[in-house]
Amino acid sequence: MTALLSLENLSVHAGGKALVSNLSLSLNRGERLGLIGESGSGKSLTSLAATGLLPTGLSASGSAILAGKQVIGASDRELNKLRGTAVAIVFQEPLTALDPLMRVGKQVAEPLARRAQRDGAPLSGAALDKAVLALLDEVALPDPQRMATSYPHELSGGQRQRIAIAMALACKPDLLIADEPTTALDVTTQAEILGLLDRLVRERNMALLFISHDLPVVANTVERVVVLRQGETVEAGNVAEVFGNPRHDYTKSLLAAARRLDDAMEGRA
Amino acid sequence: MSTATMTAPADKKSHSLALKAGLLLVGIHVFVGLLTLVWLPYDPTAMAGGRLEGPSLLHWLGTDRLGRDLFTQMMIGSRIALIVGIGAVTIGAIIGVTLGLLAAFASKWLDDALAATLDILIAFPTLLIAMLVVAASDTANLWSAIIALGIALSAIVARLTRILAKRVLVMDYITAARTSGSSWPKIVAIHILPNIWPTLSVNFALQFGLAVIAEASLSYLGLGAPPPNASWGRILQEAQGTVYTAPLGAIAPGIALVSLAIGVNLLADGLRDTIDPTRRAR
């Protein structure tokens, strides 16, 4: 079986400068891969390049095969067929990921209706409303009926992120890309959202590409990791191996920083 | 949720007050404008009384230097002002929003070229551009003035639309919509236009006031509606020579202009606050 997402020597350039260089990874259904590194290490760019969503001014080279289709160099039209079916993204900041002037129920209904249309079983009216409420229920939002008629600013950060996840799920994607989905949330909410993602990925047998700089979160969420530094892959492998026996200085320093924080917290407690 | 249900009463009150005042001011002009279509106190072109009479029960605002009833002229002026405002803003909005969106989506060099062109156009006063357009057309009439003002205003609308659209385009929800397979036209219709609308609509109200005043200026210069069309600018111009003996001829059009411009702005502010859910909640 070919991989769902396979990146080979993927590079992203801005002008003459390489922001991501020669990144290779592959991901199958049901697998979870973590992409870690500090800010500016090219984690998010990698996910945008893999879905053909790079901002203008940036160009990608190499190969990115998503669900059997080459993404690099593909036209927007071809890519549109992949987006919303093969892949969906959950973003870091749930406030900007939702349209502030649209009721969240409608925002979830949009991709849901589109996916149903593509599957040849259009949803509308009451059936669509029901599907929206079912999705809101699936992401464990309390009182879906009331939630659906709310605007984003009326919800808490955690609730917004659940809506964003529901929008991603509405696409029934094979691959879910989560770009620092818990960074903007407090620790308790973070744990809830991670638990939710974990359950959904398992239940729906999706592949998960988890982007984060938070090592403990990554360690608990994924099976394999790729460590990026300034666009270069410094280390890749199973979580236990990489974190238990880091070979590269950069990985060691990341781990040491995480441990220092732990120690400091325990020292205070 | 608590932020949504808790609304500051004082704020809400002032919003609805602006809306009510705006509705009242604009409503009066709309009512008078519509009324002129079916009823006028006097024939606007007839000499209904003596020349430069003061206000009386027969002539509420007195008469002008040809003995025509000023109140009748003012009523017709309301209709003309509304036609000019609505016409010019509609033309400006259609051209401006289209150009602005085009620039926001265009490749870099086209965007730069459009932005530079708009900046140059904006550097010229609205009135000057409108005068050039009117001068370029064969006859100076109300419609040439409206089209000229519409074109002049479109540059301002286009620049604003471009900036607002660019700001919305970089939001994650646009990327999210694209990842979920939305087409660009759909994204424009359901995400971009609704999100730039609150700011645009307030700007349209400003433009409306600007257009009405600019038309008065054009008429004042003899480039607007030709006589006997009684636009407020023309009334003002005709009263100019006799302003010391019959000041009402200058004061009345001034007050009418200001009240309509303020009314439209209050109305737009109020409407935006009622429509925009993020403001409504505050």
From TrEMBL, chain A:
Gene Ontology CC terms, in alphabetical order: plasma membrane
A GO term, aspect molecular function: ATP hydrolysis activity
Protein name: ABC transporter ATP-binding protein
Record domain ABC transporter: where: 5-255
SMART domains recorded: AAA (SM00382)
Classification via Gene3D superfamilies: P-loop containing nucleotide triphosphate hydrolases
Protein's organism: Devosia riboflavina
Keywords, sorted A to Z: ATP-binding, Cell membrane, Membrane, Nucleotide-binding, Transport
